[in-house]
Structures are given as structure tokens and as C-alpha cells.
Amino acid sequence: MNNRLRWFGLVLSAALVLASEIAAAGGTADGFVRSRQGDLLGLMGQPKSSAREQKIASIMDQVFDYDELARRSLGDDWNARSDAEKQEFEGLLERLVKQSYRKHLDKTMGWDVTYNASSNVDGGVRVPTVANHKTDKRKEPVAIDYLLHESKGQWKVYDVVIEGSSLVGNYNSQFRKIIRKKGFGELITRMKRRLEKGTGSDKL
């Protein structure tokens, strides 16, 4: 599962940053993802600065539905939590997703992403892509599907499926085990510890 979570950061960065000539299909789910590519590609060409990092974080906030991601990754335990617990958990999960994404953002310039035809899924749209390394042909192509839905009139990503493995499903499995064995408080503690370390394994 650690490899899957690391792949998430890698290929999501690639899919959002790399594009040749982007023509966003306004109003569509794949057009939304493609347009974020253009935004980030422009930012990555700018000199490093706190302002640039703030803009990158802002685009990430446009991409993800953190509330839905939190609900799905916590699963059946979501309804058992108080409002304060939900708020703290969602805030920590948002930071974990951002940390994982940003950690790999500068490492993905060697990948190209091809978009395939989108399709409807329960309550949303699946945007399938394939990532190919630009120069190292020995690296196997990686299939990445983005699951989006409309929230308040905006497209938002609520899950990423990499080679058939769901980001939400991986988080849910990990979170559930911790809660069952040690309790919700232990999950919060491990999330905070992971954020403090900043690098290394994505396992809590």
C-alpha cells in the first residue's frame, strides 16, 4: 500500500503538471483536469517563491473535494465522530494529501499523460489517463483514473485510482485498522506525526 500511495503523489503530479498543447473542454470533467495542467505548468516555470507555493496550494484546493475524500476514506466511522473530530480529521487529511502531492511535484517532469474517453460512474465521471515516461522506455505505463463529481457547480476530484487501486480505498483500509486496534485518537496522533516527518514512508 505504501507504494500505491507514493504512486498517487507521483502520477497525480504528472497528470496535473505535464501537458503538450492543452485545449480545455470547458465545462467537462476532463476539461477541468486539463485546465489545471495549464495553470500548474505556468507556475512551475516561475522562479521559486512563497507566492508560487501559495498559488500551487490554491490550485490544489480547486482540484480536490477534501470533504468527500474525508467521508469516503473514514467510511463507516465518519458518522460516529463528533463535529470537532470530523473537522480535525479533514484538516489533517487535506494536509497529508497536499504534502504527498507537493513532495513529488518536482520529480514528474519526465512523464507524459494521455487522456482517454471519460465515462459516467455513480454520481460522477471517471477520467482515465495513462502516464508514460518520456525517455525511459523500460518504465511501464501507469493507468490513472480520476473520479470527479460536481460540488457547488464546480468539478472536484474525490478519488484517484492507480492501476486499479483506489486512493480512498487504501486510506480507508489503513485508517480502519488503526481505529479498530488503537482508537480514533491514535489515528489523529499518527496523522500528525506523519505531517511532522514530512518525508519518507506514507504509512501512518
Topology:
Blueprint: H1 2-17, H2 29-44, H3 50-63, H4 66-74, H5 83-105, E1 111-115, E2 119-121, E3 124-133, E4 142-151, E5 154-162, E6 165-166, H6 167-182, H7 184-197
Antiparallel strand pairs: 1-3, 2-3, 3-4, 4-5, 5-6
Using brief descriptors, characterize the structure shown.
single chain; about 200 residues; alpha+beta; Nuclear Transport Factor 2, Chain: A; six-stranded antiparallel beta sheet; globular
Percent range of helical residues: 40-55%
What is the overall number of helices? 7
Radius of gyration (Å): 17 Å
- Helical/strand content category: alpha+beta
CATH-assigned homologous superfamily: Tgt2/MlaC
Order of helices and strands: HHHHHEEEEEEHH
Q: What's the number of extended β-strand segments?
A: 6
Biggest β-sheet, characterized? 6 strands, antiparallel
The rounded distance between the terminal residues' Cα atoms is: 11 Å
Quick one: overall form? Answer: globular
Oligomer: single chain
CATH topological fold name: Nuclear Transport Factor 2, Chain: A
Count of domains: 1
CATH top-level class: Alpha Beta
The appropriate CATH architecture is: Roll
- Unreliable stretches (pLDDT < 50, length at least 5) are 18-26
Question: What fraction of residues sit in β-strands?
Answer: 15-25%
